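Figure-free illustration: sequence to structure, shown twice.
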Amino acid sequence: MTLSKQQTFDRAVRLASRIDDDFLELGRLLKQLQERDSELFDQVREETRLGRRRAYYLVKIARCVEGLPIPREQLARIGWTKLALIAEELTHTNWREMLELAEKHTAHGLKAVLAGRRPNERCVVLYLSAKDYQRLANALLRYGATSTGSALSNKEPALMALIAAAEGADAK
């Protein structure tokens, strides 16, 4: 049974207040409104204070999981945040692997894995004077970093080699 535009709107408004209860159904309803009446789609967002980005993520998820034999319970367990990260990657051949990745990692870790990084990497930001930066760059170059124009490559392994050397010196 196809809902009228007004019924779809009313149901979407009700679900938006409890997004975590059934985000997939909300995404499906928002997708229908977006396709049938973009003004009603925008009105749902305004009335419910559902952010524009979140609304589009929910539509994207609904669109990408449509036709895939994924149990709704599994999608609910994973959550819309992680599904938004993998939605466009899902295919009939890889959905099991992609969902396994999503179940195994936090959203932050999943984002890293999808970008080809390790899930538990940490980022370090240093603010150094020009003189101290040059000292750091010279030390990293001595321990394996390479100069590529005005930037350094292989900084991470070089830094870890420098630390290992410092730890070895401390042990003596």
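We now fold a second protein in the same way, so the two outputs can be compared directly.
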Amino acid sequence: MRAGLGGQECLPHIKAPTCYKIDMPTLSCAAILFDLDGVLVDSTRAVDREWREWAQRKGVDGDAIMAIAHGVRTVEVIRRVAPHLNAELEASAIENHEAGDQRGVTVMPGAADLLRQIPEGRWGVVTSGSRLLATNRLRYCGLPVPKVLVTSDDVIHGKPHPEPYLKGAAQLGFNPADCLVIEDAPAGIESARAAGTKVIGITSTYAAERLEHADAVIARLGQIRITSNGAGKLGVELG
């Protein structure tokens, strides 16, 4: 058994882990950064469909793509699975098409309620997708587009490099150590930890054991409650 945030313990070997409180702890942070796909929106079917259709057209192994695609920039996936192709041109075509095809995309349960609990200017989104794709998915799911939105268009190095979350924290105006990240993919968790933030993993895409480097693992956003501690900080309770 491993300790979670603030004295919580989770059972990481269970796919939908049970997190329970030992002494009703509350994690303190200044701001929260969310990954998008698999955290605020459920786009698993759309992502799988888009990649497999592209793989079939290009003669690439679709299973090999899906093994590495989650949480990684499109251009970097293409560079790894199809180095003979022009990765930038292919990635642009894929993401532009995906931005206009939201079939199967839905809001993650609890996402809207959780965002409403966070004061304005205290949260942002850091995604491996393009700005057009991210904006379209947020609007399609009825979620607000935050002022701080770091996308694949804004970084040189994508996740698992720390650059995306370092930029997210900087744009919010907070030290990374004062930020909390919510992620669903190992690459995103590695990026957040390398940036110096705390991380909560959610088992929407991967089993809990694949998220073992997060500070705590939850099964659903509804387990999170945000409060204010009266000192300019946010309290994050996991239940």
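Summary for the second example: The first strand starts at residue 2 and ends at 3.
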